[in-house]
What does this fold into?
Amino acid sequence: MADAGMKRGPDRGAPLLWLLFAGGGTVAAMLLPVMVLVTGVAVPAEWMSESNLVSLIRNPLTRLVLVGLVFFFLFHWAHRFRYALVDLGFGPLGRQAWLFYGTAVAGTILAGLAAVRM
Amino acid sequence: MSRELTRPLPRTWWLKKTSYLRFMIRELTSLAVFAYALLLIVALWSAGGDPSFSTFYDFLNSPVSVSLHVVVLGLALYHTGTWIALTPKVMVLWRDDEQVDPDVIAGVTAILFLLVTGGVLWLTLA
Amino acid sequence: MSDHAILEVHRYLPDEEAEPRFQSYEITYKDQWVVLDALNHIKAEIDPTLSFRWSCRMGICGSCGMMVNGEPKLTCETFIRDYDTDTIKVEPLTHFPVVRDLVINMEDFMEKLPSVSPWLIPAEDKPLEDGEYRQTPAQVAHYQRFSMCINCMLCYSACPVYGLDSTFTGPAALALAQRYNLDSRDDGHGDRADVVTAHEGIWECTYVGECTEVCPKGVDPAGAIQMLKLSYALDWAKSLVMPRGGRK
It folds into this structure.
């Protein structure tokens, strides 16, 4: 019952997508909790003022890092969520895969645009 | 040849066993990662003035934002925990004759996580 | 010491009945009985029409796999006394078509195994005069765990990916590929790539990990598959930098 759109023989796109998923998962595992602590606890608890936060984000190095995080977070989500939907019974999603990775690309571009125009 | 019986897997298969449920929750933590990426995009745009940064900062101070952050934190920690546990399965290391104890690899990864967390907190808040 | 139990056994007799059903058998069992003992007792003393596979009754042949209270088990290793329910449900291994009663069609599994080229593929044919292959204990240790598979198919029953898509190569076959990839006598890493790195190979696995949980021999097929993902992904990355270097 393979989808007619699925190719036989080596899946040439899979290694890259898996590496991005794995890299993104590692980045998220290491960094997501602390970032949530900053924006979700430190800010409301007033350990970080509005001016401190905005100058932190405007720092060119921070901007680069944040765009990188958006890239990795979104590609991790795209791959894992696509396969979660497959496991939930929504079909092989071979032809629809571009929806997920395309969103990741679009989000990264959005983040990049915001970073350069600041 | 008599007809064979096929038993299709129900879509709710992941609700039938605790280990399956924990698997599906782990997969759905990716939605928390997605949500936070969106927040980062909004943060980047707000810092450039679109919408004004004050609006964004006020939102971060709102009960809605704090509640969402709590949920995302829970999911993020579940992702981190499961990822640390899975690292020794992907990274199988050998020293001479013996395999490096998987618990050691997981432990090092956990310590790395704590160091990174501490480091980022120090960098941003100090 | 003996006790009473009820076995609810899945029956499917396609030549007589269109639909499957369950049949209850009340038995008295001895403390040391396993589910397989109960089934053989039923067949010998109560109902000779019951069909099921078994052979060694000591957990090495892989024939007697069935669902016991919803879990894939080797019935020769599953003790009745370990169940605190009065009723024990016995069904054929899930994710396989049922031929009759507790007997499944294992053709798909039999096709998956050879598809990963599970034999030594050395870089060069070594003439007999050169003598035997030698391996240190460390070299054996690298692949030993993955060589313990008894082909019982419990992992295929536990795997929801296989349950949803039977074209998935599956845990045992992929662990077997890794068994050979890690063997120091083997150079077939590249030859196995066509099947292992097809979409229906390692990439369809979402690391549910249940295959490893149910394996009666501690093979850890889930671990093998994750190692394969990293290994072949790094191969791909290296091939970008060195298109003709390294592996064939």
